[in-house]
Amino acid sequence: MLKEFKEFIARGNVMDLAVGVIVGAAFTAIVKSLVDNLINPLLGIFIGNIDFSNLVLTIGSAHFKYGAFINSVINFLIIAFVVFLLIKFINKLVPKTPEEPEADDTPSQEEVYLKEIVELLKEKK
Fold first, then answer.
1. What does DSSP assign to residue 36?
2. pLDDT > 70: percent of the chain
Protein backbone atom coordinates (compact mmCIF):
# COMPACT_ATOMS: atom_id res chain seq x y z
CA MET A 1 0.00 0.00 0.00
CA LEU A 2 2.89 2.36 0.75
CA LYS A 3 4.35 1.67 -2.69
CA GLU A 4 1.03 2.56 -4.34
CA PHE A 5 0.88 5.77 -2.32
CA LYS A 6 4.42 6.71 -3.44
CA GLU A 7 3.45 6.10 -7.07
CA PHE A 8 0.31 8.20 -6.63
CA ILE A 9 2.23 11.10 -5.09
CA ALA A 10 4.97 10.91 -7.71
CA ARG A 11 2.52 11.31 -10.59
CA GLY A 12 2.81 14.58 -12.45
CA ASN A 13 -0.81 15.58 -11.89
CA VAL A 14 -0.52 15.49 -8.10
CA MET A 15 2.69 17.49 -8.13
CA ASP A 16 1.19 20.02 -10.56
CA LEU A 17 -1.82 20.36 -8.29
CA ALA A 18 0.40 20.93 -5.25
CA VAL A 19 2.39 23.60 -7.07
CA GLY A 20 -0.86 25.20 -8.25
CA VAL A 21 -2.26 25.36 -4.72
CA ILE A 22 0.93 26.90 -3.33
CA VAL A 23 1.20 29.46 -6.12
CA GLY A 24 -2.53 30.18 -5.81
CA ALA A 25 -2.19 30.88 -2.10
CA ALA A 26 0.73 33.23 -2.72
CA PHE A 27 -1.14 34.89 -5.57
CA THR A 28 -4.18 35.38 -3.33
CA ALA A 29 -2.01 37.08 -0.71
CA ILE A 30 -0.60 39.42 -3.36
CA VAL A 31 -4.03 40.33 -4.71
CA LYS A 32 -5.41 40.82 -1.19
CA SER A 33 -2.56 43.21 -0.49
CA LEU A 34 -3.24 44.97 -3.80
CA VAL A 35 -6.91 45.39 -2.92
CA ASP A 36 -6.36 46.42 0.71
CA ASN A 37 -3.40 48.74 0.17
CA LEU A 38 -3.92 50.22 -3.30
CA ILE A 39 -7.38 49.73 -4.78
CA ASN A 40 -9.52 50.38 -1.70
CA PRO A 41 -7.70 53.63 -0.80
CA LEU A 42 -7.94 54.74 -4.45
CA LEU A 43 -11.68 54.03 -4.50
CA GLY A 44 -11.93 55.72 -1.12
CA ILE A 45 -10.72 58.97 -2.70
CA PHE A 46 -13.63 59.02 -5.14
CA ILE A 47 -16.39 57.28 -3.17
CA GLY A 48 -15.45 58.11 0.37
CA ASN A 49 -14.73 55.53 3.03
CA ILE A 50 -14.67 52.16 1.24
CA ASP A 51 -13.61 49.98 4.17
CA PHE A 52 -16.63 47.78 4.66
CA SER A 53 -15.04 45.62 7.35
CA ASN A 54 -16.57 47.72 10.15
CA LEU A 55 -20.14 47.19 8.92
CA VAL A 56 -21.90 44.94 11.42
CA LEU A 57 -25.53 44.01 11.92
CA THR A 58 -26.32 43.23 15.55
CA ILE A 59 -29.39 41.22 16.48
CA GLY A 60 -29.48 40.39 20.16
CA SER A 61 -26.05 39.03 21.05
CA ALA A 62 -25.27 37.92 17.49
CA HIS A 63 -22.99 40.10 15.35
CA PHE A 64 -23.22 39.65 11.58
CA LYS A 65 -20.10 41.11 9.95
CA TYR A 66 -21.53 41.60 6.49
CA GLY A 67 -18.92 44.25 5.71
CA ALA A 68 -16.14 41.66 5.86
CA PHE A 69 -18.19 39.53 3.48
CA ILE A 70 -18.50 42.45 1.06
CA ASN A 71 -14.70 42.90 1.21
CA SER A 72 -14.26 39.19 0.45
CA VAL A 73 -16.60 39.45 -2.55
CA ILE A 74 -14.64 42.44 -3.86
CA ASN A 75 -11.38 40.51 -3.40
CA PHE A 76 -12.83 37.50 -5.24
CA LEU A 77 -14.01 39.61 -8.17
CA ILE A 78 -10.63 41.28 -8.49
CA ILE A 79 -8.78 37.95 -8.23
CA ALA A 80 -11.08 36.41 -10.84
CA PHE A 81 -10.53 39.36 -13.18
CA VAL A 82 -6.75 39.25 -12.74
CA VAL A 83 -6.71 35.49 -13.40
CA PHE A 84 -8.85 36.08 -16.50
CA LEU A 85 -6.36 38.65 -17.78
CA LEU A 86 -3.45 36.36 -16.96
CA ILE A 87 -4.97 33.40 -18.83
CA LYS A 88 -5.83 35.65 -21.77
CA PHE A 89 -2.22 36.89 -21.87
CA ILE A 90 -0.81 33.34 -21.64
CA ASN A 91 -3.12 32.15 -24.43
CA LYS A 92 -1.69 34.87 -26.69
CA LEU A 93 1.89 33.81 -25.88
CA VAL A 94 1.46 30.06 -26.25
CA PRO A 95 0.68 28.92 -29.78
CA LYS A 96 -2.45 26.85 -30.14
CA THR A 97 -2.08 23.18 -30.90
CA PRO A 98 -3.74 22.12 -34.13
CA GLU A 99 -7.09 20.54 -33.47
CA GLU A 100 -7.79 17.03 -34.63
CA PRO A 101 -10.17 16.83 -37.56
CA GLU A 102 -13.67 15.85 -36.60
CA ALA A 103 -14.63 12.27 -37.27
CA ASP A 104 -16.87 11.90 -40.29
CA ASP A 105 -20.06 10.03 -39.44
CA THR A 106 -20.81 9.06 -43.03
CA PRO A 107 -19.87 5.42 -43.66
CA SER A 108 -17.07 4.66 -46.07
CA GLN A 109 -17.72 2.80 -49.31
CA GLU A 110 -16.20 -0.29 -47.75
CA GLU A 111 -18.65 -0.16 -44.84
CA VAL A 112 -21.57 0.25 -47.22
CA TYR A 113 -20.50 -2.85 -49.19
CA LEU A 114 -20.05 -4.88 -46.00
CA LYS A 115 -23.49 -3.86 -44.79
CA GLU A 116 -25.01 -4.94 -48.11
CA ILE A 117 -23.23 -8.30 -47.88
CA VAL A 118 -24.53 -8.85 -44.34
CA GLU A 119 -28.09 -8.04 -45.49
CA LEU A 120 -27.78 -10.47 -48.43
CA LEU A 121 -26.54 -13.21 -46.11
CA LYS A 122 -29.45 -12.60 -43.74
CA GLU A 123 -31.90 -12.90 -46.67
CA LYS A 124 -30.39 -16.27 -47.71
CA LYS A 125 -31.03 -17.75 -44.28
1. I
2. 90
